[in-house]
Amino acid sequence: MEYLVASTVGVLTAAGVYLILRLRAFPVILGMAMLSYAVNVFLLSTGRLAVNLPPILSKYATEYTDPLPQALVLTAIVISFGMTAVVVMIALGVFFENGDDHIDDQAADADVSEGKS
Amino acid sequence: MNHWIIAPVILPAILAPILAFVMRHDISLARIFSIAGAAALAAIALGLTVLAAQGETHVYELGNWPAPFGIVLVLDRLSAMMLLLTSVLALVALLYAVSTEWDARGRHFHALFQFQLMGISGAFLTGDAFNLFVFFEVLLIASYGLMIHGGGAARLKAGLQYVVMNLAGSTLFLFALGTIYATTGTLNIADLAVKLREIPIEDAALVRVAAMLLLIVFAIKAALFPVQFWLPSTYANAPAPVAALFAIMTKVGAYAIIRMYTISFGPDVAATGSMAGDWLLPAALVTVVIGAFGVLGARGLLPLVAFSVLGSMGALLVAVSAFSPQSTAAALYYMVHSTLAAAILFLVADAVISRRGAGLGLLQASPVIRHNGLFAALFFGGAIAMAGMPPLSGFLGKLLILDAMRAPDTMVLVWVVILGGSLLTIVGFARAGSIIFWKSTAIDVPEVAAPMPAQPLAITAIFAALAMLGLLTVFAGPAMDYFDATSQQLYNPAGYISAVLGNGV
Q: How many structural domains are present in chain A?
């Protein structure tokens, strides 16, 4: 299972980083999503991998898994979900304002130097 | 337990939804409540600073769960002074935004502003690394809204870059926290300090990776080379009052570096040693150089100010990188100064550009504005503060930094870079000021028919910030006493640890 989890994190991170380095908004957003999946799996594994163990007190349990990483992952999932929604909205706004979804800076630079505010 | 400690988080947290839901159609009511909230925050922060100045570290246990099991808020000298700085800056930015009606150009400005204050206050107060991440996200998500406030193609595009950069940074933050938790089993800053000091140097590889990842995350926030690229276009495109408030955002990164790398990963921790400082120093020096050349090469007024902020972050982090009590005290003085100076410059630049008319943010002569002399004087004041010329506090701040950086092997390099950077910054500002304020007087154009309203409140806000720089200069002695005591507190983490974890440690 260690190999499965480790390679999942690795592949997701690699794909996410590759996509973030693209020039268009849509792949970048997908890349952010992949990276956040990768980090969620990674966080879950920081409490050591365990199968079928309860995270909270139970009178039948003899062993427990660490509950804290699960709480951390829950927080991270909620936050990354909200952030993805925000970035989709902003990217849509950019697309409708500029008519293209390029991330790079040339047009913006020209506007700054003209002092649009 | 002193319940006032959580007030800087609770107050904006309650005010923001009220502003968003109850007062969204009534801008004047929202303005009154927002300014009253910021003033109350400043009063609370002042009270907390007086409390913290007595030297004791105060701990607030959320839900009364003892650390390290519950989340704690910790009030010491450093967090108190950062709170005070934030609230004062917020008040200045808010008065300017209200007076110039920036807040009416989009929706929910005041609600987002209060959420931003909540995130910043929380980040300064928290004693838990994961909670620090959560408050970072709170302040970031509010800053995304503020950044694109008012809209416009250029601003939206710069906003998208800013959001993507910070999302990548947040992901990295989570990776770093996961690694720290996997190796030490805790995320409480004080508990972390204890556990890290027990890790022998042979088992330190993973901890060193985590420390480095965390440093990169904070470097992104602090706009340190090579992750500084987001800053100039973000700050130059943000609405001016927001850019003024963002002056504290880079300092949140600097604060986090100072906090984590003195208390938790302190220089006395065998596992990490002086690693953070060794990497910070060259990166900070390059940042100073980039900032100076940016000031010299900027074609517009707002990019010029943004690059000067970058240069000041470089100088600040040079002082942080030495990790000695003297240099940290100098860094704290310079941090307060450069935050206010950056805010002044952004507000003056916006006032000038809005009077020159749309499309005239470029550094070129154009018909002279009304009250040319007044704005020239304000710009001059902000510029000499930022560049580090006497008589304002920038001079003292840079002097303190140079004085603290006397390590024989780096002294020549650091002095040359900081002094050279200051010189280039002065030249850049002098060029911009003479083009905008002096060459413009040579153009003979009759005054436009409908002049801008005078906006006395906005000018008052800028003058108030300048007056604070003056006070920081005049009362540099008492201020330095406070900053010296602050850095003593930081380099003796035993007090912090025993306050948080109880007497058992």
A: 1
